[in-house]
């Protein structure tokens, strides 16, 4: 089981499953939403993800099929979800509190990376989403 929460603790969650992969997304939307060089997220099964404090979750429609969810109190990004993939949410890994390991990591939209950031690890890089 994976547990996590936002910065202020008003939203917490449990995921009944394992983290199978981690995507490091360098697209401009993710950079803006995270305030950093990339977003680190993992696809998880919606049916196995349970939130406490869901009244503090605010969803922002970032395009016609995607929402980005965050805590309305502290602003911590929590997940994104696409209407064409309702069975999956992309959990923001910075909110995870449970220790785990996952070697299945990769960079997506690597061609869109911030000019001031260099990718220096050995993980695969894709020019688009995976």
Structural account:
This protein is mainly β and 130 residues long. It has one helix at 28-34; strands at 2-5, 12-15, 22-25, 39-45, 49-52, 57-61, 66-71, 77-82, 88-92, 105-108. A hairpin with a 5-residue loop joins strand 8 and strand 9 (88-92). The longest helix is centred in the N-terminal third of the chain and has 7 residues, at 28-34.
Strand order of the largest sheet: 6-7-8-9-4-3-10
**According to CATH, what is the class?**
Mainly Beta
The chain-level structural class is mainly beta
Rounded to the nearest angstrom, the radius of gyration is 14 Å
Q: pLDDT under 50 segments (min length 5)?
A: none
Q: Report how far apart the termini are.
A: 25 Å
Whole-number mean pLDDT: 96
Helix content: under 10%
Give the helix tally.
Answer: 1
Q: Quickly count the domains.
A: 1
How many DSSP E strands? Answer: 10
| Major sheet details | 7 strands, mixed
Examine the coordinates and then state which fold CATH places here, giving the name of the CATH topology: Metal Binding Protein, Guanine Nucleotide Exchange Factor, Chain A
Sheet-strand content, in percent, reads 35-45%
- In the CATH hierarchy, what is the architecture at level 2? Beta Complex
Q: What is the N-to-C order of secondary-structure elements (H for helix, E for strand)?
A: EEEHEEEEEEE
Shape: globular
């Amino acid at each position: 089981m994976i547990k996590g929460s936002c910065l202020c603790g008003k939203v917490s969650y449990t995921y009944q499953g394992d983290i199978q992969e981690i995507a490091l997304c360098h697209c401009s939307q993710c950079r803006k939403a995270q305030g950093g060089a990339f977003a680190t997220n993992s696809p998880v099964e919606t049916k196995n993800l349970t939130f406490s404090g869901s009244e503090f979750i605010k969803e922002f429609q970032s395009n016609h099929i995607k929402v980005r969810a965050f805590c309305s109190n502290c602003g911590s990004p929590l997940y994104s979800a696409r209407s064409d993939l309702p069975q999956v949410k992309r959990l923001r890994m910075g909110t995870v509190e449970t220790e785990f390991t996952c070697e299945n990591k990769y960079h997506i939209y690597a061609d869109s990376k911030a000019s001031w950031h260099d990718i220096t690890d050995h993980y695969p890089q894709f020019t688009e989403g995976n």
